[in-house]
């Protein structure tokens, strides 16, 4: 099924989805600035995932021909060069870089969601305790995956030894490693998805709005599905095109998914007004700039004066439509009361 996909076709697919991820991420940043007038740490984490994705796409493009040639050699469609050929070392080096970058992209997307939830539900002490546990699990699984990458062929000293990496024992260990990588990735995806869901019942929202938020929080399930498909393809047929296809889709869709929650602002009237107001004020300031006195004598709409910071929450709030109900686990300044959620995209 996948054998008909050429290296050129894989590159076209990879860069198309990468471009979509970059465009949606740009829109995400624009929405955040339009609705909050500043950026937060989840924006920094998402920017990191975008930059890592670009680096990964470039590495994939370089490595696809090497992987395709290895597939032909394994299928005896091409004569294998001697083991001393530098081709093998280059292939293993690219495989290492790709594997590391894949983990970095996926876990930076998880970090984006975790920071997003912290901003959103910062007023709940119970949630923060569970959140820290989720952060610890995510952090630990990331380093387990990174560390095990260097022992795929046995010891770290054999990492670029193709003879050792293609031995029956190494291939058996690699298959086992793929399985627990998938288990760790899917487990952390599920934790990140489930983490905010128990908070929804405490929000004064209609059923449709709660379903919309639950859907936004559950987008990571899509990434988990692609990881499972990639792992199954690696363990069963193991064709170069099939593995490359699912790997490319997994990382690019992960970044796309990480950019989508803030697009909620576009489906609410108040969110749209906030965005239009922001860009309208910028356009007005640019037109007005030619009529102002020399720099420093007049401030325009692009200048934001410092504001006193509230003690809690630390970011501006969803004043329009997201508020918590009175509940025993929502505490603010030592007493239970209605508390607005942190603003992310009104």
- Count helical runs: 10
- Strand content range: under 5%
Cross-sheet strand order for the largest sheet = 1-2
Q: What is the typical, i.e. mean, pLDDT?
A: 77
What is the C-alpha radius of gyration, as a whole number of Å? Answer: 24 Å
**Total number of beta strands:** 2
Low-pLDDT regions: 281-286, 290-346
Largest β sheet strand count, sense and barrel closure: 2 strands, antiparallel
* 3D shape: elongated
Fraction of residues in H or I helices? 55-70%
Pattern of helices and strands: HHHHHHHHHHEE
First-to-last CA distance = 45 Å
Structural class: mainly alpha
Walk me through this protein's architecture:
- The chain is an all-alpha fold and 346 residues long.
- The protein has a two-stranded antiparallel ribbon with strand order 1-2.
- Helix 3 packs parallel to helix 6 and helix 8 runs antiparallel to helix 9.
- The longest helix is centred in the first third of the chain and has 35 residues.
- The protein is elongated, with a radius of gyration of 24 Å.
- The C terminus is likely disordered.
What distinguishing features does this structure have?
mainly alpha; 346 residues; single chain; two-stranded antiparallel sheet; elongated; disordered C terminus
Spell out the blueprint of helices and strands:
Layout: H1 7-36, H2 41-74, H3 86-120, H4 125-149, H5 162-165, H6 168-194, H7 207-217, H8 220-235, H9 240-259, H10 269-289, E1 331-332, E2 335-336
Helix pairs in contact: 1-2, 1-9, 1-10, 2-3, 2-9, 3-4, 3-6, 3-9, 4-6, 6-8, 8-9
């Amino acid at each position: 099924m996948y054998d008909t996909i050429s290296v050129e076709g894989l590159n076209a697919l990879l860069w198309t989805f990468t471009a979509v991820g970059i465009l949606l991420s740009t829109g995400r940043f624009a929405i955040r600035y339009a609705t909050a007038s500043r950026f937060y740490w989840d924006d920094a984490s998402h920017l990191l995932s975008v930059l890592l994705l670009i680096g990964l796409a470039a590495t994939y493009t370089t490595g696809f021909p090497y992987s395709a040639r290895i597939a032909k050699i394994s299928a005896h469609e091409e004569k294998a060069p001697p083991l001393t050929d530098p081709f093998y070392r280059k292939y293993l080096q690219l495989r290492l870089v790709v594997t590391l970058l894949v983990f970095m992209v996926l876990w930076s997307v998880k970090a984006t969601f975790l920071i997003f939830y912290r901003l959103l539900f910062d007023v709940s002490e119970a949630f923060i305790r569970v959140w820290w546990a989720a952060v610890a699990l995510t952090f630990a699984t990331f380093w387990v995956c990174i560390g095990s990458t260097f022992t795929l062929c046995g010891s770290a000293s054999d990492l670029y030894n193709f003879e050792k990496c293609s031995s029956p024992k190494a291939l058996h260990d690699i298959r086992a490693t793929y399985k627990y990588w998938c288990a760790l990735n899917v487990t952390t995806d599920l934790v990140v998805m489930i983490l905010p869901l128990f908070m929804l019942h405490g929000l004064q929202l209609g059923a449709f709005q709660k379903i919309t938020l639950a859907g936004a929080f559950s987008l990571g399930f899509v990434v988990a599905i692609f990881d499972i498909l990639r792992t199954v393809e690696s363990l069963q047929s193991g064709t170069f095109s099939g593995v490359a296809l699912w790997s490319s889709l997994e990382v690019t869709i992960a970044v796309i998914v990480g950019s989508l929650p803030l697009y909620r602002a576009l489906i609410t009237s108040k969110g749209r007004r906030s965005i239009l107001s922001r860009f309208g004020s910028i356009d007005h300031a640019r037109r007005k700039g030619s009529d102002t006195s020399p720099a420093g004598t007049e401030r325009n709409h692009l200048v934001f004066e410092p504001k006193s910071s509230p003690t809690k929450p630390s970011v501006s709030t969803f004043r329009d439509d997201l508020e918590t109900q009175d509940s025993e686990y929502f505490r603010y300044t030592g007493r239970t009361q209605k508390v607005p959620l942190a603003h992310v995209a009104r």
